Each structure stands twice: as C-alpha cells, then as structure tokens.
Amino acid sequence: MTVGCCALLAGWATPLSAQARPKNAGGSTTSSYEAYVPETISPEAQQVLRMMTGPQGLPLPAPNDIEGWKKIRNYVPPQLKAIAKNPEISRRTSDAMKRYPSTSKKGNLGGVAVVEIASEKWQDNGKVLVYVHGGGYVTGGPDFGLGGWVSGETGLRIVSIGYTLAPEAKWNQATDQVVAVLHALEQQGYAPKNIAVLGDSAGGGLAAGAVLKMRDEGLGLPGVLVLWSPWSDITETGDTYVTLKRADPLLNYKLLLKRAADAYADPKDQKNPYVSPVYGDYSKGFPPTLIQGGTKDIFLSNCVREYRAIDSAGGTAVLDLYEGMPHVFQGIVFGAPEAQQSMVKMKQFLATYLGK
User: Which backbone phi and psi does 27 adopt, to 5 degrees?
Assistant: First the structure.
C-alpha cells in the first residue's frame, strides 16, 4: 500500500484508554473515532476505510525534543501495516504501481537535497513538477511513493524536495529551502511558468507559504500549484477541526498535530502567512491553484478557506472535493476510482495552466 507521510504521522497519537474509547458497529474500540463507512464511495475505498481504526500509536515527543522526534520517524502505525498486508489491497496496489515504472536519483538544487523521479516513458518537454512532501513537518522525506504514478500520468519529471524537518529546522528555514529549489530551477533555464508545484498535507501548506514568500520578494512565480489536503492553518482554527474530529480516521489535533505544529513554528508565528497560508493576501497575485480534499478529512476547512482566500481576492482556484475520502486519500486508497478521478482532474488543470 502507498501511504502519505502524514498518514505515518497519524499513527503517533497517544490513544485513549480502552475504557474511554467508544465501540464502533463492529464492536472494536477506537481512539475517539466514529468508524462510519459510506455506501456512496467505491467498494475499493470502502474496504480500506473499514480497516482504519482512528489515530493510535506512540506518545509524541515535546516540540523541541530533536532526538525524540528522530527516534520515532520510522514508526508505521498498526492500522496502516494491516492494510498493507491485506492480500486483496496489496495485490491491487501492486498491479497499479506496475503500470507506472519509474527511475529516481538523488541530487542537490540550491544547496538542498532533492530526489528526481521520472516515468520510464518521460520525454523532456521543458516543464517540471516540484513536489513538497507532507508528514506534519516532523517526518517524511523526498522519496515520493506515488512518484511513478504522478510522473506517468502527467508526463512530467518530478523534483522532490528533502527540506530539513522540524524541530531541527523551523518554518523559516524550510520555507527558504523550497524557495531555493524553485529559484535554482529557474537558473537552470526553466521559465517560472513551466514549473508546477505539488504539495500534500504539511507540504501543501509549505508550498503555498513558500510561493507567497517568493511573490513578496519579487521572484518569478511557478505556473501552477496543486494542493492535496493542505495543512494551510496549523492552528486549530476552522469548522472541521471540530465537526470532523471523530470522523477523521487518521488525524487528531490535540493528540497529534499540536505537537508537530509547535515543533515547526512557535505559537506566536503560527498565523504568519508563510506558515499558515490561509492568512495570506492573495490580491497581489498567485498562481492558478487546484485544491483537492475529502469529506472525512479534518483539513476540509483548510481546503475551503484556502480556496476562498485565493478566489475572493480575484485569483484562479478550483476546489475539488471527494465524497467520504480521508486525508491525502490519493495515497490511502491508491488504485481506487477516487484516486484516479483526482489524477484526471489534476492532469486537466496542469494542461490548462502550466506553461501558459
């Protein structure tokens, strides 16, 4: 199974005691999680959701405990291990991945580690896709599990950024590293209009924040931005942080995201637009932006608010939502119709705006 970096982070939340956890319809206990699987989604997605038992796993370190964060970065939550070992899901994922053979190599751009990923069928068309990974800013890396799929479907070479994780680096350093990679690509000869940026979860917030900073510094802006379930407000602000608190099968703010947010940015900085881009001023210009999310994701309000911030300022933005889908569902239900539908939309968006 292919999972997003924030999905790995989701397994670290300290669970409630068994006595405090409610039982779902099947009798199993969950960490304050209401395990409802809608009939309105594909059978493939239903199968995955039925195996998801809510945030669970290890206690999280203190925000500035560098060694503590390092120790748990390779932890994979039990529910994701179980899904990956399911024979039917594993076979479906494997079959889908085989359709997208790719190559990858490590490199360096602007003094920042990167991984370059390209479909075996890739042909240079003078355009490139920069990927900013998720993981709550405290985990994950540039080895993009969906890279072959994205490169194969879009026809673009991917440059995946290995920005320094928190708390080793704070938001200003990570943002500068993304800007440095984008600027280095321009120096290599890529016109800004031929550069697309994809960010998922925390990577979506970082991508949007970095582009705002580039604009404010008078640098050339990428041609297109695509955000999957962006963590565009790292404070617990927004309707679905409350309304979907017990519906999201992966994320919980108080148990999980609060520690990661504080590791990335001091509370006094957390509403800085470069940290939480929903607070940005988009009237000064911004690239066309596609925002994709699902109705089970507590970041749904982040998707809506980011869309409204861009659209109400006169920018071009599309909000593309999917019924019953969890956080960064493209990786969680990879191979299901919903993931493929989201890719079709992304391809159409890139075809419309990249290089224009």
Answer: 95, -5
